[in-house]
């Protein structure tokens, strides 16, 4: 039992003692008074729980609205590019040897596509068109 439970038990004992002293005539008033205290205790617990859940939801929303920090370091990007170029050699040879020029083109489209996806993942907005009339453009277009 925690402190609140022991306090509630004391309230119940006091209510029962008051019933013994006052008699059956006051029983409903005493029960109503005790139930009112129990209701207040439950309402307080529910209110605390709701506040805690609302705060947790606000934290999730606040964290979700921020753009995630880039997790790719320069070394990871460099390594990906290096591996991509190393794998491009056998892919080019296989594509060119099997299907000649069309195979070579398909192999390089795949290589460029994988690198474009990686670049877009690392830099969101890299392939978005620029807006006309922004403050950056107006300085240069006079």
Spell out the blueprint of helices and strands.
Blueprint (H helix, E strand, L loop, with lengths): L2 H20 L4 H39 L8 H49 L12 H6 L2
Report what the structure shows:
With 142 residues, the protein is an all-alpha fold. Helix content is 80%, strand content 0%. The chain contains four helices and no strands. It has helices at residues 3-22, 27-65, 74-122, 135-140. The longest helix has 49 residues, at 74-122. The model has no long low-confidence stretch (mean pLDDT 82).
Query: How much β-strand is present in the residues?
Result: under 5%
Integer average pLDDT? 82
Estimate percent helicity.
Answer: over 70%
Main β sheet profile? none
Please provide a brief summary of the model:
This protein is an all-alpha fold and 142 residues long.
What are the defining features of this structure?
80% helix, mainly alpha, 142 residues
